[in-house]
Amino acid sequence: MQQFTLFFVVHLTALFASTACIDYDGFLNMKLEHSLNCNDEKFCHRGSITLKSIRTGVPIIDQILFNEKHLEALKKLANEDEFYSIKTTITTGENSKGTEYLSSVKAQAFLENGLSDVINAWILPNGAVIAVNFQVANSTQPLKQATNEYKLNSKFYLRYIEQAPVPDTASYIQKMERDREAREKGEMKDNRSFLAKYWMYIVPVAIFVMISGATNPEASAPAGR
Amino acid sequence: MGNLSINLKPNFMGLLKCLNSINWFIVFFSLINLSMCIYEDQIGKFDWRQSYVGRIKFAQFDTVSTARKIIVATEENVLAALNLKTGQVVWRHVFESTSSGNIQLLHLSDQIITVTGSNPYLVRGWDLSTGVLIWEWGLTLQKNEHTDFSEWWVQNGLLVHMVPKFGSHIEVSVYNVATGHNRGATSKLPAVWINEGCVLSPPYYTCISGSPGNQLLLSMDVTSDAVQIISKPLAEYTTARNANLNPFDTNTVIPGFLLNEKIILIRGNKFEAINIAVSEPSASVALVDSASGPLVLQTWNDEAKGFTLTAHNLVSGQRVNEIGWSDRSLSIPEPELSAVICTKTAREQHVCRILVTAADDASHLIQQEGRVLWTREEALANVVAVEFVDLPVSDLDAAIESEFDQKEAAKMHSSVLAAFTRRLQSQFQQLQGAVRTLLAGDAAAADEPPPLVRDYFNLHKIMVLLTDAGKIFGMDNLSGEILWKLYEPNLNTEAAVMFTRRSARHPPHDAYLTIVGKHEETGNGLIVSLNPIRGTPVGEQTLHLDVQILQCAVLYKADAQKLHALILLDKDENVQILPESSAPLVENMYMHVADRSSAVVRGYALRHDGERVSAKNIWSVDLSGGGSQRVVWSVSKPAAERIHSAGRVLPDRSVLYKHLNPNLVLLLTEGPDPVHKDVVVATCVDGVSGGVLSAHVHRRARRPALPLHSEHFLAYLYYNDKQRRHEIATLELYEGPERWVPAGAAFSSLRGARAPHVQRHAYIVPAAPAAAALSATERSLTDKHVLLALSTGAIVELPWALLEPRRALSPAGEAREEGLVPYAPELPLPAEAVVNYNATLLRLTRIHTAPSGLESTSLVLATGLDLFYTRIAPSKTFDLLKDDFDYYLISVVLAALVLATYSTKYFAARKMLKMAWK
After folding, report:
1. What separation in angstroms does the CA of B143 have from each of B118, B152, B166, B169?
2. Each residue's pLDDT tens digit, B261-312
3. Distance from CA of B915 to the nearest CA of A (A)
4. A104 lies in the same domain as A124
5. So what's the pLDDT on residue A141?
6. Do B750 and A222 touch (CB under 8 A)?
7. Last residue of some domain: A160, A194, A214?
8. Taking CB atoms and an 8 Å cutoff, what residues of chain B touch A85?
């Protein structure tokens, strides 16, 4: 019985781990800055992503619209096969100072994909973000134009870092138990005779013996003649 | 007869059918024979072991027992006996590598007495001839503060422990050596004049004390019952402003010390200055007894004369001429006299045996006339990096190769005639070579060492070993013989890396190996380039940069000289290319730098803008997890790794494609966690784009270690704090049943945002692993095996199939058909899988593997206190005949078959002829 409860506990924890593998909940503010059309500064405002709750992971994305200047600068980068870099500053309830993350995509690829990107933020169970990755979506799209301005098409995913598997001793022991029970049951049932059980092993051996017995007199027969 | 054959026919068919059905029986029986171990007579055939003890700290000649030995205690916490004639280890005891194994005292009487540890101490007695522990007692001091400067010695069969408290007093305790019985408890001797600069010359403790200009030389016998202080103004002995006290390196005669370059003895409670000049401030001075009275021995490395040793008679001050020589050929940097023994022969001549330890950790036993009896390269007890280097092909093979090289041929022999003469030439050379080997026979070949050329299977290589002491060795992998050595005193090998920048495959050019390390003092980059075959400096030679190096890599493209350029990223994020001329080749080059303590990982894109190469920071991730985590390991794939198959065939004939990202980096971090005590985070990051591919957390885990990374799989060990055991976590990355990029297309990290499917699992390792490595073969056709070195001194070879995360608990039909082993939480470590059979390897730290020319065979070198070399064949030697293959039988059979063919042909022809006449 104890084993059964253990089994349940294991399953319950597994269930919990899959739904809420995060120990901490709070808000998450992401300030996005890019290195495009920034005049003198290295990075300038691109937008922000806000999450009210890390656990639910529903983002509110607010980004600027690209104008012709932006697009020109991006095309220039693309011609030089350069990177379009985005700096993300994350502030949470615990970390009000903010941590900076840098990510880049090839300007050429960003342009080809109609300014659409995929943003992945990887978050530890303690609520700390380890990385914010910008990647281009893998599809060629035309630019979406809205009265001389171009819309950024971003998708945001919050990726929870899961708990690693541990050596699964409990279910292995259970399996061994089951196997043992099955064997015990099987032994009770199988009361055929020795010959009936192992005939498939005995027959080949018998055939071998027979053949070797049959070839020997043949070999000796010409000698006898 | 005819009757019988009719009867037999159906029987025979039956047998065939039966054989068909028992096919799997045959497979099963052949599996039983699948043992990985070697036969007893194969011991030492493919492997060798070398035992080391570490840098010698204390040494004494054993004059008691009949078999002459030197007893040594080393920095590596090893107590060992060395054979006086050969230098071989007779017996060896390895203590803990932590401070509890630190050897404080080595004393020889009729038995060996050692004191190890630092509060608590262990006093042990060992048998001289066998090294067996005879007795042992422990000692724990109540007060722990000043024990760092404590001294131990044995006097009149009593063990004396002295703890000085600077500026206050000296505590002296005397114990019975064998029992630990405290004879007179602890006595406190008031001594306000003691300081850090004091020296001990048992039983006298000597100091310089007092205000500058008015200093006193004070000394006290700490074991005498009555406190008696010898005090003299320092000005009587030296006029130097900053006087230094130094003990003798070896002293078996009279208490004394060195005051700057002056020898001062303490005799009859008086200081006595000896008028024997110490020739060099760096000289090592020893006071030894001989038949003609005590001798003063000095040794130093003279700039002009090389290694120099002199001896003076202590009483007369005369130079003893028969002891003393200099030798330019000996390279013994900063020699130190570890032990000296002097006797007299029948002809009234001194005979001295001197054990000298050098700054490169080597120990030499030198006899009288400067003859080196043996040398122990103890630097090899601390190998930090190993590189296997291919040998060059022989001149003959090189000539043939260049003949068939298309480009070379087009250049040199444009005409048919030239090509023809060249052909004839090389064939004549081949004939010459063949005749020469025939004439020389086997006898001559056995005597001379095999030449340093590549053998047919490329099993013969040179291993370049970089040691902690800064000494670099070139070692023959088949014999373990040291071919060359190079001492680089300024090289700090912490985090040093080695690159083979040009192999010996490009005949007119030499092989080229570069070591990137730090300068001992400045911490700036130090680059050593050498020819790994001969050990001679080449190219940049030894280059001392004026800036610290952040990261280094080798360019994947070779220049016209087939040399791969070295790329250095320095602290100011500037890029240096060596040689400079290769800068235009830099294209699509990326680097990443992980900061250990802040756990910030930065990625750089390197670009050549026509003039110079610049690095641009394109990504950064912060693995610190709120500031607590730090990076412990960062492993990328081995360079130039080949992958044989892009996927795994599943039972339903579909293919599960592997995610073979060549830029994948595994980063292991660890740190405390408020909820789960300690956590380990493993993150798979793309080294080019900075994208995280997978990450997971181990709760209540510590010490992530020994990461393995190859093809599409990763593994690492960690210590499970909750269960108190070592576990191994394994990961495999798959793309799924369809390829992301078409076959043959280059992989790009910068395109596409698809995440691979990650399979993972964890296994219990029922041992304490010390090192791990993956087998490496030339084309990766052979299975990958994991070599796991255990703290017990065994190296276990495990197939990857046992570590596979796809092992299901109870595999269903299809998985069973695929051949997956059912899941078991504990890894089996069978004794048959131990590759080093009973040759226990102490304190293993690393395993290095390298491919050989034989696809089945991988070369393995395990380093630690011992060096062990062997070769393994993970999928058995499928491309080699067995050692006991019967060549005789097969040639007889072949000859008989050929004979039978021709004779039957002849008879058949005759028969046809006869038939035709009928």
Report:
1. 12, 17, 15, 14
2. 788 888 878 888 888 878 787 888 888 888 778 888 888 888 888 888 888 8
3. 28
4. yes
5. 66
6. no
7. A160
8. 618
Q: Which of A22, A20, A134 is nearest to A87 (CA)?
A: A134
Residue A2 lies in a domain: no
> Mean pLDDT throughout B138-156?
82
pLDDT tens digits for A55-68?
888 889 888 888 88
Q: Which of A125, A131, A168 sits opposite B621 (nearest CB)?
A: A131
H/E segment holding residue A68: helix A68-79
Which site among B4, B8, B748, B751 would you substitute to test the A interface, given the most A Cβ atoms closer than 10 Å to its Cβ?
B751
pLDDT digits 0-9 by tens, B321-334: 777 788 888 888 88
- Phi, psi values for residue B258, rounded to 5°: -105, 130
Q: What is the Cα–Cα distance from B670 to B681, expressed in whole angstroms?
A: 6
Q: Over B57-105, what HEC string results? A: EEEEEECCCCCCEEEEEECCCEEEEEECCCCCEEEEEECCCCHHHCEEE
What are B642-681's pLDDT values in tens digits? 888 888 888 888 899 999 888 999 999 999 988 888 999 9
**Which residue stretches of B609-706 are H helix?**
none
**B32: pLDDT strictly greater than 50:** no
Answer yes or no: is pLDDT of B128 > 50: yes
B823 inside 8 A of chain A by CB: yes
From residue B917, how far is each of B903, B906, B908, B911 by CA, in Å?
21, 17, 14, 10
CA distances from B216 to B191, B235, B266 (A): 14, 8, 15
DSSP three-state, residue B750: coil
Q: In this complex, is the C-beta atom of B622 within 8 Å of any C-beta atom belonging to chain A?
A: yes
Instruction: Using CA coordinates, name the residue in chain B closest to A125.
Output: B697
Question: Is B741 at the interface with chain A, CB within 8 A?
Answer: no
Nearest to A128 among B605, B626, B720 (CB): B626
Does the beta-carbon distance from B18 to A207 stay under 8 Å?
yes
Residue A32 lies in a domain: yes
| Whether residues A186 and A208 fall in one domain | yes
CB–CB contact B621 A130 (8 Å): yes
Domain count, chain A: 2
* Residue A154, in any domain of the structure: yes
ipTM of the modeled complex: 0.79
Q: Tell whether the model's pLDDT for residue B608 goes beyond 60.
A: yes
Residue type, B722: K
pLDDT (tens digit per residue) in B385-410: 999 999 888 777 777 776 666 555 55
Rounded Cα–Cα distance for residues B594 and B237 (Å): 56
Residues in B touching A11 (Cβ below 8 Å): none
pLDDT exceeds cutoff 90 at B908: yes
pTM above 0.90, yes or no: no
Pairs of CB atoms within 8 A across A/B: 150
Surface of B (713-732) touching A: CB under 8 A: 720, 727, 729
Which domain covers residue A173, as residue numbers? 169-224
User: Which residues of B fall within a CB distance of 8 Å from A127?
Assistant: 626
For chain B, state the CA radius of gyration. Answer: 35
pLDDT at position B485 is: 92
- Residue A15 inside a domain? The answer is no
Same domain, A212 and A137: no
Same domain, A143 and A196: no
- Residue B503 — pLDDT band, cuts 50, 70, 90? confident
Instruction: Answer yes or no: is pLDDT of B475 > 90.
Output: yes
Q: Is B616 on the interface with A (CB under 8 A)?
A: yes
**What is the spatial distance between Cα A101 and Cα B622, in angstroms, rounded to a whole number?**
7
Same domain, residue pair A208 and A108: no
Of A137, A160, A183, which residue is a domain's last? A160
Q: What percent of chain B has pLDDT over 90?
A: 34
| Residues on chain B touching A159 (C-beta within 8 angstroms) | 692, 695
